[in-house]
Amino acid sequence: MKTILLLRKLKALATTVACGAALLTHSATADTTLRVWGLSGPSGEYFAGALKRFEKANPGIAGKFSAYPNEQYKTAIQVGVRSADPPDVYQNWAFERAARMMRDGFAVDIGDFTKELSATALSEYTFKGKLYGVPFDRHGKYMWYNVAYFRDHNLSPPNSFDELIDVCKKIRATDPQMVPIGLGASEPWTIDAYISVFNQKLVPEDVRKADTALSAPADSLFTDLGYIAALQKILDMQSAGCFNDGITALTPEAARSMFANGMCAMHYEGTWCLVVFDNEGLKNGYQGFRLPDFKNQKGSTGAHLIIADGFQVHPITEKRGTRESAIAFLKFILSPQEQAEFAKETKALPSVPAARNYLSDATPIFLWALKDTSEATVEVAHLDTTLDRAISDVYLRGYQDLVNHVKTPEQIMSEVHNEAVLIQKQRNAQQ
Q1: Which of 122, 272, 351, 430 might form a disulfide with 135, Cβ 3.0–4.6 angstroms?
Q2: 264 and 413 share a domain?
Q3: How far is CA 135 from CA 138, 143, 287, 316, in A?
Q4: What CATH number is associated with residue 415?
Q5: Count of domains forming the chain
Q6: By the 8 A CB rule, do 161 and 293 touch?
């Protein structure tokens, strides 16, 4: 009998130990640390602070923020998401760059954010009918113009591309020393801003979508004549004297300063430069308009170029048990109050329009741009965020050759077509 009782006690003890081991294992794998990666600088400082506020509002969750400079981050995040210790939440640009993370298996569907963001904003991270990220800022690009100069020279903001050309010619005729539009293309993305919008206007939407997705037949990829016409429009502006000399030698920063100091009448730039214009002497002296439409254009009218940054969630959160915390953090930083704090600290346009209710000190032009950008229904993005990187690189290399008259629009689009065919073939082989 004693032997039987001893055996029963040993069995009970073994069961207790086993249960304790199971609890210990669960405790060891449950992770209360939320790892967030992002860019350094003003936005990084904001997110580090936001993560601390999120911790305070959610006892038991510890945040760890890692920040990297812009160019370094582009490499770090590609390595990081593939590492043994990836971030739970990470900053990433919208459209193709976000879609690439989804295709490669490094981003998860985060569910419903319709209460936080507009359908247009959500579309920037929506692929195959699911949401794989959210934007926290949405900069709009405008053609800014010097209000006093336009008034003094009886000029009006143009309503069409032809009128824009006419404004350039009038400025050159009446004031030869004034540059109509400052353009610094030592970094070719400044030209890409124009071409991205021109493509939307001059190429049928279904054609653009098929080319972007590389779903069109190989022999027709990027062969629509609208692509050539879009590149030609830059040359037309150049011929009309719209731009300064030495386009590819001038930096984007120098072009911004040209506008802020009254050395050019207009400048096409993102809303992140409002603080530059204000600090360099043009505060309350400028207004903006979207790039005007063409006569009989193929695409929808009123398109707006928007640059969106956001966050995505890594699949590791399922294993760590941090998915719920990751999504809660995204909803936290998309509250109007946090979006307003983000705008105050970074001078960037938030993605939630209701943030304006908490921005009593914002300038009128900032609030105007926030409202106009949030109301855009036809959105355009830079080609280097919508196209496969190899294809957009061909475009970017071609822009400087275009304005330096080294290559024609036809030659550049031939190179784009050839690269697209190659990338399409590689993707099909991987499927």
Answers
A1: 351
A2: yes
A3: 7, 23, 25, 21
A4: 3.40.190.10
A5: 2
A6: yes
On whether the pTM is more than 0.70, the answer is yes
Q: What is the DSSP letter of 241?
A: T
Report the distance separating Cα 78 and Cα 65, nearest Å. 17
C-alpha neighbours within 13 Å on the C-beta side of residue 80: 23
Rounded CA Rg of the chain: 26
The model's confidence at residue 318, banded by pLDDT at 50, 70 and 90, is: very high
Apex CA 356: angle with CA 354 and CA 359, to 5°?
A: 140
Which of 316, 312, 391 has its CA nearest to residue 99?
312
Query: Which of 345, 370, 395 is at the close of a domain?
Result: 370
pLDDT in tens, 184-201: 999 999 999 999 999 999
State the chain's maximal CA–CA distance in angstroms: 114
Burial-class residue 49 by CB neighbours within 10 Å (0-12, 13-18, 19+): middle
Q: How far lies 316's CA from each of 81, 257, 326, in Å?
A: 9, 45, 11
pLDDT reading at 30 higher than 70: no
Q: Which of 370, 388, 415 is the last residue of a domain?
A: 370
Interacting residues of 73 by C-beta distance below 8 A, sequence separation 6+:
37, 38, 39, 40, 91
What is the amino acid identity at position 347?
K
Q: What torsion, rounded to 10 degrees, do the Cα atoms 375, 118, 64, 61 define?
A: 140
Alpha-carbon distance of 368 to 287, in angstroms, equals 9
pLDDT bin (cut points 50, 70, 90) of residue 154 is very high
Q: What is the rounded distance in angstroms from the CA atom of residue 79 to the CA atom of residue 37?
A: 12
Contacts of 256-262 with CB under 8 Å at 24 or more apart are 256/182, 256/184, 256/280, 258/179, 258/182, 259/144, 259/146, 259/182, 259/286, 262/146, 262/149
**Sequence-ordered list of residues with C-beta below 8 angstroms from that of 68, at least 6 positions apart, any chain:** 37, 38, 39, 40, 76, 77
Instruction: Summarize pLDDT for 352-374 with one digit per residue, the tens.
Output: 999 999 999 999 999 999 999 99
Q: Report the amino acid identity of residue 185.
A: A
In this predicted structure, what is the pLDDT of residue 23?
A: 27
Q: How far apart are CA 172 and CA 168, in angstroms?
A: 6
Helices (H) and strands (E) in the chain, counts: 19, 11
Sign of CA dihedral 318, 322, 328, 334: negative
Q: Which tokens go with 278? A: 């204000």
Category of 268 on φ-ψ map: left (φ > 0), alpha (ψ -120 to 50) or beta: beta
